[in-house]
Amino acid sequence: MSRSVSPIRLRPDRPRSGLPPEVVEARRANLPRPTFPEELPVSAKREEIARAIQEHQVVIVCGETGSGKTTQLPKICLSIGRGVHGYIGHTQPRRLAARATAGRIAQELQSELGQAVGYKIRFNDRTSPSSYIKLMTDGILLAETQTDPELRSYDTIIIDEAHERSLNIDFLLGYLKQLLPRRPDLKLIVTSATLDADRFARHFPQPNGEPAPVIEVSGRLYPVEIRYRPPQENEDGEIDINEAIVDAVDELARLDPGDVLVFLPGEREIREAAEALRKHHPPHTEILPLYARLSAAEQERVFKPHGGRRIVLATNVAETSLTVPGIRYVVDTGLARIKRYSYRNKVEQLRIEPIAQSAARQRAGRCGRVAAGVCIRLYEEEDYNKRPAYTDPEVLRSSLAGVILRMKALRLGAVEHFPFIDPPAPKAVNDGYALLQELGAVDEARELTEVGRQLARLPLDPRIARMVLAAREEQCLAEVLVIAAALSVQDPRERPAERTQAADEAHKKFTDEKSDFLGYLKLWKFFEEALHHHSNRKLHRLCREHYLSYIRMREWRDVYTQLKELVGEQGWRLNDKPATYAQIHRALLTGLLGNIGLKQEDGHYLGARGIKFHIHPGSALARKSPRWVMAAELTETTRLYARVVAGIEPEWLESVGAHLIKRHQYEPHWEKKPAHVAAFERATLYGLPVYTNRRIHYGPLDPEESRRIFIRQALVEGDYDSRAPFFLHNRKLIAEIEALEHKSRRPDVLVDDELIYAFYDSLIPPGIHNGAAFDAWRKEAEAKNPKLLFLKREDLMRHEAAGITTAQFPHHIEMAGRRFALEYLHDPGGPRDGVTMTIPLIALNQISAARCEWLVPGLLKEKVALLAKSLPQKLRHRLGPLQEFAAEFVERVEPSDMPLAEAIARYARSERQLVIPLEAFRPETLPPHLSMNFRVIDEHGRQLAMGRNLAALRAELGHKAGEQFAAVAQPKAALEGLTEWSFGELDEVMEIRSGSQTLIGYPALVDEGDSVSLQVYDAPDKARAVHRAGLRRLFMLQLKEQAKYLEKNFTGLQTMALQYAALGGDAAELKRQLLAAAFDRACMAEPLPVNREQFEQRRDEGRTRLNLIGQELARLVGVILTEYQAVTKKLQTVKGFPEVVRDIQEQLARLLPKNFIEATPYDRLQHFPRYLKAIALRLDKLRADPSRDARAMAEYAPLQAQWLREEAKRRKQGETDPQLEQFRWMLEELRVQLYAQELRTPAPVSVKRLQKFWESLRR
Q: 1173 and 1239 in contact (C-beta within 8 Å)?
């Protein structure tokens, strides 16, 4: 019987060993006198145990669960006088066990709980100054080491269930090993339910070096038969564990009556097994679950008396922590859910794994308490023999962050040297430090930071403590304490398997679409309001209706209350004003930096250190997931899931994770406007890009490199906005020398940039890397030497650029009465390589394409030489040395409006007696810089277009240019109704003044039918095109009689008219065209008359030869029409070759439109009979060798197609291009070459030559 003890108040800072003698004597006098149940195995060994405790500082007691060691060891200590100078501290791994054990011992000592026997668990202290025995969790004893480092409050400590080897147990064992030499009065008893007690004994050697004594206590009272019943595969080749459980229970049912304990790995498996058993067994069989998440009331059902048969389905909580009464049979699936920490993913994974042999023995031992038992193992005996002997200690499969933090706070030294029974792997230690570094608790030297010291004062999980600490700074303690408490307990929301849809619907009111954390706040508000407005009974019902665990809701509230008290003790005040989303989540983020994720294109998230995860389907964010998230935890089941998720902003990571962010600068460069060196910066957090391409001031980060960039890019390359005299002088000098290089096309005049760099580098002192610092230094330096930074011409030039004069490379070119600016650039391959001529839009149509072919004197010799080189060998060698020929030509021939190739051909004919067809030149072989580059600008100087093909530019912009010109010129120069030359001299060009602007126009006579008019055009080709028809009409009006006679007397007109009808024309149209063509040859030879005298002279000359010319022309047209008629007849005979027929028909349509006589120049018309004969020969050869025709057609067709497209475009725009026209006739000559080579061509022609010519047209 225990006796009452007068309460003695003990100050926490005054150890019991320092109690006054009278207090010690009073405690000794009131020491309870325990009795011992003889039926418990441990009672038989109590004297041996008592003696060992008296003789040794450390005793190891090894006894299976059920031996009575947990309840009797504290009483044995009392019986030998322990507990007088301090508590008999008794630790349990679980709060439930600590509370239940305290109650049981108090009952046996016939003492009220909290008096002689008390307990202390998290946030709940039921001890008093009169207590002798103090039950507690091992975590509580660990926490007390911070305020009582030598544990002076205790004279005896019992570490129960040490075989579980939790982190707290291992830490306590290591801590006590260090403490015992300093506390020789302290007794330590370590109990283990497995046979690995030798490890504990070796961990605590006696002074003589021998292991601590080990006392073994039997736990099993009756023998247990082991049966192995591995489940068999079903028809689908799968193993149904529930079917195996049902079969095992059936087998046991055939034995003597007794309760069955089934071990399963988790709650889900328990539910499934229960369902299977309920379907199979009669109703009077009671099936009960047993696992840690059950409420105390539900767990208590297992221990209450019952009638009939009972099947208890339990997790490994029933292995050692709880003894289930009345069990005669055990079914062991051999599986358990084991929490393991992934060092790679930094997450704890709850996996189903085979249990160790020691755990299997523990499970089997459960059925030998009341009678002989049977244990059925649902696996092979061979499988059992291969399993590890003991379960891995938690220290080997956990994150060590919390332990390390506490060890640091206790100044126990490095965790690597701490005396663990099984020292953790270096990898685990590193991960623990990594988490603390993530939280900002340790620095790079692994020493505690100020944050770490503050965290150590909060007896909370380090992550939770970090959130609370940040909440104080963010002014959101009120909200974060609620969330932190929620994260510290099991989720109170229940989701029964048979009512998942109803539970989900009930929980919707607590969801927040942006944050699961805020969902906790909604749930908290709901419960708090209900707590104040409903009775306890109604509150229970309300929780059931909303699928909430009342017990866990109260636990959550208790934890919150304790947290609130804890921050109150720290002097922190809760915020009155509601916190914002950002404040709350920034605070939470401080503890969850390792659980952030960035959404990828395929929907998954890329997390810290490269892991990939998905948002758990139960999250409110699962469907509409934000780009950045953080999660309370990452758990791997079928895949890696993030649970309790919220969206975050990447900007928060910069401040919250500043100590972890890795910054990388790249592409340092000079920036002109701010006048400093900038760079781009990329920041990553655990490999995730927080930001990229952020522009930063690079100078302070790398002054040396920034100085080099400043000198090179700002001063050497001139990218600097400065009016300093030295800078303007140096840039002007360099620009002048660069201009010489561009003109001479020699990039070796200006010295290398390195020499200029060396010049500045030798003068500018270190540390100067921006415009402001440079100007400050320069002004001071130039006060002493104004020319200090001036470069000299001779220092910048490698050699003199001889021959680079303004005459050779002028700044302007005069044309059409105005000057056009020229720019030079040596940039091979670039669009502006060579000479660029700037043309205002209004003058675009007035540019002479032929004159531009002559370029400038400095480049003309090279172009002439290369044009000569492009000639066929038989022509080229007759010119002599090409460089000499080119020099001679440039010296003797002045640039003009004659095309350059034509001028070269004329010069060769006069000086070398060599006839060169224009088609023989191949300008497409010349490099681009030998063709003028045209840049068209508007009236504001903005570029409209640029290219080397003037005709293409005119096709694009010519109409607009003509409209601008006409709006100014036409009202000032038009004459109408003219029938004779009565308008004086007709100048080729005329000046038209419009205000301050002087325009150049091109007058032309325009055919009005019965008269002509005088108009002014902006382009010579436009004027020339209409002027010929207008001048011809004026000649016809002056030679009316001759025209009438010729019209009536054309030779063979009747026959020709019949043949011409095939082209869609009649005799009148034929006569009109013949007459117009005759006048062209008789009166319209170049140069055309420009005044009355020349006109009348040409008229009189034409009068005498008009008839002769007309008859000659009529005979040529007769031959052409006859050949055409023959070809059309032959076409009828080859209808079996439709592709050929269509090709020839299209060719004939182009050659012989209805107006071909008038539209075709006479020198081209003369070749038509040969072209038609070539068609006839092609048709003759077609039947004999159609494949040859097809090959030729395949070579020819692409060239023709591209010409047709370009020609149609130009025709639509009303533009003509002489080079395009030349290409058209080259195509006809190519047909002769391919199909009728025997007819020969005036100049060599081939597919390759035409391709290169076309390429030159496109430039």
A: yes
Q: What is the mean pLDDT of the chain?
A: 87
> Which among 198, 217, 236 is the end of a domain?
217
Do 350 and 435 have their domain in common?
no
Residue 1 inside a domain? The answer is no
The domain of 499 spans: 431-657
Residues ≥6 apart with Cβ < 8 Å to 1045: 1107
Report how far residue 1167's alpha carbon sits from residue 1173's, in angstroms, rounded to the nearest whole number: 10
Show the CA angle centred on residue 488, arms to residues 313 and 485, nearest 5°.
130
Q: 255-259, 382-386, 496-500 — which is least confidently predicted?
A: 496-500
Please choose, from the candidates 674, 673, 680, the residue with its C-alpha nearest in 3D space to the C-alpha of residue 701. Answer: 680
Asked whether residue 452 falls in the same domain as residue 567, the answer is yes
Pair (970, 1100) in one structural domain: yes
E strand intervals along 600-657: 605-607, 612-615, 628-636, 640-647
Q: Quote the number of domains for the chain.
A: 7
**226 φψ region: left (φ > 0), alpha (ψ -120 to 50), beta (else):** beta
931's tokens:
């063709």
Q: What whole-number distance in Å separates Cα of residue 767 and Cα of residue 332?
A: 76
Following DSSP, what letter does each residue of 547-611 receive, concatenated?
A: TB-HHHHHHHHHHHHHHHHHHHHTT----SSPPPHHHHHHHHHTT-GGGEEEE-TTS-EEEGGG-
The string of pLDDT tens digits covering residues 593-621 is 999 999 998 889 999 989 999 999 989 99
Residue-wise pLDDT tens digits, 557-588: 878 988 898 898 888 999 999 999 999 999 99
The Cβ-side half-sphere exposure at 1089, using a 13 Å CA radius, reads 25
Mean pLDDT, residues 375-403: 88
- 1179 with 1162, same domain? yes
Q: Cα separation of 920 and 917, whole Å?
A: 5
- Paired sense of beta strands 87-92 and 133-137, if any: parallel
Residue 631 lies in a domain: yes
The helix (H) or strand (E) run that includes residue 793 is helix 793-796
In a domain, 994, yes or no: yes
Same domain, 768 and 834: no
Q: Which residue has the tokens 């009111």?
A: 509
791 with 826, same domain?
no
Domain CATH code at residue 644 = 1.20.120.1080
Mean pLDDT of 884-913: 92
